[in-house]
């Protein structure tokens, strides 16, 4: 049944993020990551559009033209850069991405790794999160703050080139301790 499969998928993803967050000292974020996925607004949509190899939100978006589950999710989870979109302070700025606190950038990084592992399964490599990000990064424009984008890209590149152990150690010792 799709409900059980979806439940197992979100639990698997959540556990991966939790373990990764714990490795760098983000215990609270690891425990609370993506709790909104269990709310009816997100969970029921996930069950309805579950496919197993990609986010059900993408399927909902293709059918309806938008994803109500995603709109709910991004508005409640600070590890998504979309949560941080607001009006800029300058007269001509319009809507722009605000600089994210470092701990949420790190959680976003962990989220991207876990999503890649969840959907790529045995085909996962440490290069997948970077490849996925770079496919969409050009479209982000001013929706993600330049400093947030730079840190996320740096961590994804480090992961692809040096692996999890070195990247997580760097995050623990340099990014979180020094605030980057």
Helix-strand layout with pairing:
Layout: H1 2-24, H2 27-32, H3 40-49, H4 56-64, H5 68-74, E1 85-87, E2 95-97, H6 102-120, H7 128-137, H8 146-178
Antiparallel strand pairs: 1-2
Protein name: DUF5662 family protein
Taken as a percent bin, the fraction of beta residues is under 5%
What is the element string, with H for helices and E for strands? HHHHHEEHHH
Q: Give me the count of strands.
A: 2
Biggest sheet character: 2 strands, antiparallel
Rg calc:
16 Å
Q: CA-to-CA gap between the ends? A: 45 Å
Class based on secondary structure composition and strand pairing: mainly alpha
Could you report the average pLDDT, rounded to the nearest whole number?
Answer: 94
Count of helices? 8
Low-confidence stretches: none
Instruction: Identify the strand order in the major beta sheet.
Output: 1-2
Instruction: Describe the global form.
Output: globular
- The proportion of residues forming helix, as a percent range, comes to 55-70%
Protein name: DUF5662 family protein
Organism: Dorea acetigenes
InterPro entries: DUF5662
């Amino acid at each position: 049944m799709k409900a059980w499969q979806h439940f197992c998928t979100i639990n698997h993803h959540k556990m991966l993020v939790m373990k990764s967050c714990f490795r760098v000292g983000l215990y609270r974020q690891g425990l609370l990551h993506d709790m909104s996925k269990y709310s009816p607004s997100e969970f029921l949509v996930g069950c309805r559009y579950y496919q197993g190899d990609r986010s059900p939100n993408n399927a909902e978006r293709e059918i309806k033209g938008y994803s109500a589950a995603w709109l709910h999710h991004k508005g409640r989870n600070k590890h998504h850069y979309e949560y941080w979109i607001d009006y800029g302070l300058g007269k001509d700025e319009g809507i722009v991405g605000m600089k994210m606190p470092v701990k949420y950038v790190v959680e976003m990084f962990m989220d991207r790794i876990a999503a890649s592992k969840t959907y790529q399964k045995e085909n996962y490599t440490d290069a997948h999160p970077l490849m996925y990000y770079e496919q969409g990064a050009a479209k982000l424009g001013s929706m993600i703050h330049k400093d947030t984008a730079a840190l996320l890209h740096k961590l994804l590149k480090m992961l692809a080139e040096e692996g999890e152990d070195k990247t997580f150690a760097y995050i623990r010792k340099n990014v979180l301790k020094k605030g980057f």
